[in-house]
Specification:
Length: 90
Amino acid sequence: MTTVIDLTVTPWREAASCLDVTDQVSFFPDKSDLLGIAKAKAVCAACPVADECLSWAVESNQSEGIWGGHTPKERRRIRRRWLEEIKKAS
Ligand code: SF4
């Protein structure tokens, strides 16, 4: 049986650390902007809802930005594993 998750319901966002950061941190840095990526990841590292954020980004297949402390490339790897697990379980 497949569980359908409503990806539009994201109450965890209210506790997101990125709501409180200044304009000096972008969560959509260019992939060559290593300092920008590191700054965003540092905010995510202290975020109380990082796990929820990462799950949401992986499940909704967000292709841009830093979510849950992970780059798009890192999330693609997680998503591949997640889809393989779903396939095995079905
Ligand atoms: S993990 Fe990062 S992007 Fe996600 S809500 Fe927290 S601070 Fe924002």
